[in-house]
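W.,

You were right to be curious about this one. When I first looked at the sequence I had no strong expectations either way, so I just let the prediction run and decided to look at it fresh. Below is the sequence, 611 residues in total, followed by the output.
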Amino acid sequence: MTGYTISELSPQNADSRPDGEPDLQSLRSRYRAERDRRLEGRAQAPELVGSLANYLDDPHNEPQSRPRVIDDVSVTIIGAGFGGLLAGAALRENGVDSIRLIDKAGGVGGTWYWNRYPGIRCDIESYIYMPLLEELSYIPSERYASGAEILRHAENIAARYNLTDKALFHTSVASVTWGEEAHLWTITTDRGDEFRSRFVIGAIGFLSNPKLSAISGLETFRGRSFHTSRWDYSYTGENLEKLADKVVGVVGTGSSAIQVIPHIAASAKHLFVFQRTPAAVGQRDNRQTDLAWARSLTPGWQRLRMENFTAMTMGEGASTDMVQDGFSEVFQSALYRPRAEAVAAKLSPEEVKAAIELADVRTMDKVRQRVAATVRDPDTAEALMPYFYYLCKRPCFHDEYLDAFNKPNVTLVPSPRGVEEIRAGGVVAGKREYELDLLVYSTGFETSWENGPTYCKRGGFEIYGTGRRPLTEKWQAGTRTFHGIMTAGFPNLFFMPSGIATSVRTPNHMHTLTENSQHIAYIVREVLASGAVTCEPDPEREADWVRYVVDQSTDARAFWESCTPGRFNGEGEIVALRRQDTAFVERPLEFFRRLAEWRSDGKLEGLSLQV
């Protein structure tokens, strides 16, 4: 496909197009209409309490009784997912002995502990997603590893770094309170524990708390129902063989749904898929690991590969694409290449914006063409075609999802305004009732990751700092941190960056966790070596950091407002997307370099230590 001339890139010529190219004006109108229809069906997700609390139950392990814990530890890590494990591993590497993990799950792994539905895999290449591969001398068996393999890797990290000897599982934190006289944190839990800790690291993640759609009658369904993150194999059978005589409904068509739907389609008597917004699904191209390639790897390969992927997907420049997957290609084709070409051509800001829009439209057109080429029924194909800007939602990749809708036992039920009602016998959508035996909610998670004030709500506990000031109160007007990991007035408290603004975000979240775990461990090591009892940011330096992040960030609220409701734009609540609650979006490698330079300086500049 040939490029555009400068005049064709001009916004005033958006209606003019070469033959065969998408009609931008028509697409803009279609995007707005599709967004507006979904905004009408938007509602706040219900709290999972009372009759809905069973959606939080652990189907994998029964909680065991144990004595209440009353003791002291050096570091408490709240969360035993990969964020907590990486923090623990980095602390061990820096000589910290007394570490306690706490998690409401029955073991380590975080989202990979909870999410064990059929077909679950990472969507980032496993060689860069699964951390500490070199440290554990391990190479994943496939390019996109299964959830079971990833969970085993998490367990192996915990074993290698001895992170479970003091761990408290099936335990929820109730409160975290700073003691100004003892210079220690006191942590209480729902199991009566009350212990003290010199340092606390919050690693609560953002893909563990299941979210249900706000549908009338959720508690009335008399069949079996569960969220994908609480899959009940006792009902479905380990190979879904018990679904052969069952009619199944799946609510949602996001990342989890596109993985599980092909498996249900192959097993169930009939499957109804209730779709609010179709996903943009590209080719995954999974394959077994090439052993010759694995043997050719040299020390430092994983970090280089991680950095290369981040550079390719976040526009920081790289001459070679080491990973060459859907993520790296689509971010380059839909955003960074057209931006670089337009800037090099010395186009105006408006023309640069137009060039990016055209590239996005071309990318989405390819996605829609893939649907048309795969799904045989034209009405179903049309309903599966996404009409929004590609970067409004996290890209999805799968090789069997679209073809599942060619099966005679699979019915797509488009519901742009959402499912209308749950009844005793099934689901009402489009004013029609669908009788079901099993209802699976693939409706995502409570993330709130753009908005600092919701951090404690998502974690399920409050953090009280100096003067017993709640963290929620401090962040009510916007997130305030230093380096994205500490906040003034809360000594010896650190955050892994899941859901923390003024930090950094990358498509490969594991890269961010790896870098930040090393930064936190360095500070803890230096504080212990100095003999200091507390460490926290200077308020002035914290303010400088917040200003820096806001100044370098792009005000993308207009873009998010144009997007269909979803996780990235607060379900359309644009007012909540404040500049102060943003992150280093386009220059994460620069962010990591800044942290590394700060560490190499050795002065802990910007931090106040009390000896």
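Here's what jumped out at me. The longest strand covers residues 194-202. And, maybe more interesting for your project: Confidence is low (pLDDT under 50) at residues 1-16.

Coffee later to discuss?

I.
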